[in-house]
């Protein structure tokens, strides 16, 4: 269960952010609870009553007679001595880097918030917290197995079998269609169908050339089909832009 708080006096932004988080977390199948606050004081009072949050999306600018988000962050870190909660700041103004440094935020999001940026931030938190556990399913005989998507480096199709290559070097073989596996389970997690025989996880790509993809911790590149080269480069750049890499 992930406990999340949204603190923003702009009700529309708070509601939109809550809907985006529900959509993103529902896909991960991770249980979550979201509380929405409209002032820093309300959030602090709630947390003083031993309410626990794992992730807080915190606006910086509030009404003049209220404490701002930077002060709320300091209260959480110093007065409440809470160094565990991840804080994501939100603002329409860019120039807060120095003030936010001592609060040690997970991220800073510029308003208006974009769904892709929110999703990237949630993914970052889940990876840091060890909760990024989207599952990939495959069958061997009558048995069905599930593994974490984030641990898959690439899948190779060979002699009617699929070879599942993991980040720890483990390889699992099972019968299946690479095309079906890609479209049904992996495409939405930024895997690239680079060749009729290869589907690669974007997170493990160290470099991409005209006709080859280089993987982290591997000296052997994988080929890109001639007919897919332009498409793969476009998709690769699209993912980089969306993730702000």
Assign the CATH class of the largest domain.
Alpha Beta
Specify the CATH homologous superfamily of the largest domain: Response regulator
Radius of gyration: 21 Å
CATH architecture type of the largest domain: 3-Layer(aba) Sandwich
| CATH topology grouping of the largest domain | Rossmann fold
Uncertain segments of ≥5 residues (pLDDT<50)? none
Could you describe the 3D structure shown?
The strands form 4 sheets. The protein has a 5-stranded parallel sheet with strand order 2-1-3-4-5. Strands 10-9-8-12-11 form a 5-stranded antiparallel sheet. The protein has a 3-stranded antiparallel sheet with strand order 13-14-15, with no helix packed on it. Helices cover 33% and strands 31% of the residues. The protein folds into 2 domains: 127 residues, Rossmann fold (3-Layer(aba) Sandwich); 108 residues, OB fold (Dihydrolipoamide Acetyltransferase, E2P) (Beta Barrel), CATH 2.40.50. With 245 residues, it is of the alpha/beta class.
């Amino acid at each position: 269960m992930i406990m999340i708080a949204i603190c923003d006096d702009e009700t529309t932004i708070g509601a939109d952010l809550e809907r985006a988080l529900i959509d993103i977390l529902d896909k991960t199948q991770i249980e979550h609870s979201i509380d929405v606050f409209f002032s820093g004081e309300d959030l602090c009072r709630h947390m003083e009553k031993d309410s626990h949050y794992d992730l807080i999306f915190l606006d910086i600018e509030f009404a003049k007679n209220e404490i701002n988000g930077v002060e709320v962050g300091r209260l959480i870190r110093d007065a409440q001595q809470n160094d565990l909660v991840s804080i994501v700041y939100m603002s329409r103004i860019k120039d807060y880097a120095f003030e936010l440094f001592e609060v040690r935020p997970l991220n800073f999001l510029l308003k208006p918030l974009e769904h892709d940026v929110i999703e990237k931030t949630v993914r970052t938190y889940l990876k840091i917290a060890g909760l990024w556990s989207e599952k990939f399913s495959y069958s061997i005989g009558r048995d069905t197995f599930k593994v974490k998507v984030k641990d898959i480096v690439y899948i190779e199709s060979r002699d009617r079998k699929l070879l599942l290559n993991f980040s720890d070097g483990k390889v699992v073989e099972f019968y299946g269609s690479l095309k079906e596996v890609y479209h049904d389970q992996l495409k939405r997690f930024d895997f690239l169908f680079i060749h009729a025989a290869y589907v690669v996880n974007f997170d493990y790509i160290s470099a991409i050339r005209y006709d080859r993809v280089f993987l982290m911790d591997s000296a052997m590149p994988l080929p890109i089909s001639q007919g897919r080269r332009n498409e793969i480069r476009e998709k690769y750049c699209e993912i980089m832009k969306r993730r702000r890499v």
